[in-house]
């Protein structure tokens, strides 16, 4: 998955009036030097991002992603991105994506140290092939996230609701999962509640009810989870938000990690305990998630 | 504080045998593009760093910083940096520093996504002028770090002992401190113990005893704190490591935040409670910290 295309967004040029933002973008070689060593994204992980799935050149759920980017920016005291400017940047990037699945990444960095403005860029790259993972499923382990469920509200400087570039812990959790022979992880709060995966949301089914941890307590509200919930509701299914004790996990009748690029990955084991896989529903969910959606 | 000088370290060229690493470094324009958008430092804050103070061209405490960089790398499953190669890189960067105070920053990133090696670079820049801060002192507020004191040992994937590039929370804590009319912050554990500042260590004095939070519980062992302790010991003073309840803070007879570039900043208030300032000792500490040290 090499980045094949990248463009830099002019951060000072986000006036409401102009319709031709695309003319202000600078296309850069994704493999060539484009950022200076003074970039605060690189020095301090100081910025926010989004990853958008692209199917046959159609960028999925663009507005929900841009809304979450704006929310992350607000939580980090960054200038709120101009939605129309970024929408056009995504459209330019999507037009460079070939048939099949790709990923567009949006980055809003605090900019160069002591510089006047943030830095912003968009990249596009072919996605890894997740076809088999979507069918065969993934093994997951639970890992303590270290925070109590109520800390996000009490300590907003922990940025728990923001999708920041400071993802070293998320990556370390994935490495720990691999060390334990699993494919992915589910974070638990220090007080024993289910949260989310390092780069995905968790959806569980207990009997006829689908549930996901309520997006408080610092859980990112997953755009793919929202899409799946919309689809489940359209099919008359019961899908809600709950406070889920970790001790409920072994009772799940089905479970998925859902995210923008891998889409719905059925979970086959949690901490080595088997979870039933609903192959028919998983296949249907991925078929839906691969259809063009706005 | 604009970065004036930067060099890239060849990560595959760290053989024990060669003495001429300096010939393998690539000097780059610190203001020009040098890093690609695929850099994992910039996409995920995935890497580790150190900041080294430089006084009149002499880089301070280089080996302790390189040892901590190596420890951070180990905690993050990164290739351990080759100490002699980095020592030479620091020497080259220091030779570019003018008279007065500068800062050298070392960065070891996981590299470009799906790339074969880490990326590593060193920058040098003039330091901000902290002369007045060292005399007048700083106001600090306490902020919850969200983690219990025992979490680091239980959950190493939280990388609490590593100095990673994922510093968004540290920066947000400083912004919160500024919003509250303070200059800096002291993090507390969720169970009420004193930890460290977002970019500095805390040293307190109670009566004749100097104390700092024990560098477990995910506290970074401060290189400047170690230097200060060495100096205090040479002067026959009692300096130790303790588990310090936050409720002890208002009783402190003196307090400092110490770090590699700002050095010893005396604390004048903690959460608006006055702390006595020992001007004579502070001045002596900074005189010592500004003297050439290895």
Beta-strand percentage range of chain A: 25-35%
Named CATH topology of the largest domain in chain A: D-amino Acid Aminotransferase, Chain A, domain 2
Mind telling me the C-alpha Rg of chain A?
19 Å
Oligomeric state of the chains present here: homodimer
* Amino-to-carboxy terminus distance of chain A: 24 Å
CATH architecture of the largest domain in chain A: Alpha-Beta Barrel
Structural class of chain A: alpha+beta
Kindly give the count of domains of chain A: 2
Provide an overview of this structure:
The structure is a homodimer of 294-residue chains. With 294 residues, chain A is an alpha+beta fold. Chain A has 2 domains: 5-126, Aminotransferase class 4, branched-chain amino acid transferase, N-terminal domain (D-amino Acid Aminotransferase, Chain A, domain 1, 2-Layer Sandwich); 131-289, D-amino Acid Aminotransferase, Chain A, domain 2. Chain A contains 8 helices and 14 strands. In chain A, a hairpin with a 2-residue loop joins strand 9 (201-206) and strand 10 (209-213). In chain A, helix 2 (62-75) packs across helix 3. The two termini of chain A are 24 Å apart. The interface between A and B is large, with 60 and 60 residues. Chains A, B: Its EC number is 4.1.3.38. Chains A, B: InterPro entries: Aminotrans_IV, Aminotransferase-like, BCAT-like_C, BCAT-like_N, Class-IV_PLP-Dep_Aminotrnsfr. Chains A, B: It holds the Pfam family Aminotran_4.
């Amino acid at each position: 998955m090499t980045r094949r295309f990248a463009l830099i967004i002019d951060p000072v040029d986000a006036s409401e009036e102009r319709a031709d933002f695309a003319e202000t973008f600078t296309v850069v070689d994704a493999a060539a030097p484009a950022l200076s060593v003074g970039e605060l994204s690189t020095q301090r992980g100081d910025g926010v991002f989004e990853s958008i799935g692209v199917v046959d050149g159609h960028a999925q759920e663009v507005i929900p992603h841009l809304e979450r980017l704006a929310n992350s920016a607000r939580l980090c005291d960054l200038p709120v991105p101009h939605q129309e400017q970024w929408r056009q940047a995504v459209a330019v990037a999507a037009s460079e994506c070939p048939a099949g699945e790709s990923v567009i990444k949006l980055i809003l960095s605090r900019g160069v140290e002591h510089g006047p403005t943030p830095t912003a860029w968009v990249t596009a790259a072919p996605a890894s092939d997740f076809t088999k993972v979507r069918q065969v499923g993934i093994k997951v382990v639970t890992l303590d996230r270290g925070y109590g469920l109520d800390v996000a509200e009490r300590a907003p400087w922990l940025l728990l609701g923001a999708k920041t570039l400071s993802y070293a812990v998320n990556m370390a959790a994935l490495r720990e999962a691999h060390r334990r022979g699993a494919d992915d992880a589910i974070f638990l709060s220090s007080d024993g509640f289910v949260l989310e995966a390092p780069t995905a949301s968790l959806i569980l089914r207990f009997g006829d009810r689908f549930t996901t941890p309520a997006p408080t307590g610092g859980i990112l509200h997953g755009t793919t989870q929202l899409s799946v919930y919309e689809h489940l509701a359209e099919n008359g299914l019961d899908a809600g938000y709950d406070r889920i004790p970790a001790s409920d996990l072994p009772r799940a009748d089905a479970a998925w990690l859902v995210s923008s690029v891998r889409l719905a990955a059925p979970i086959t084991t949690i901490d080595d305990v088997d979870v039933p896989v609903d192959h028919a529903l998983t296949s249907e969910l991925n078929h839906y998630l691969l259809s063009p959606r706005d």
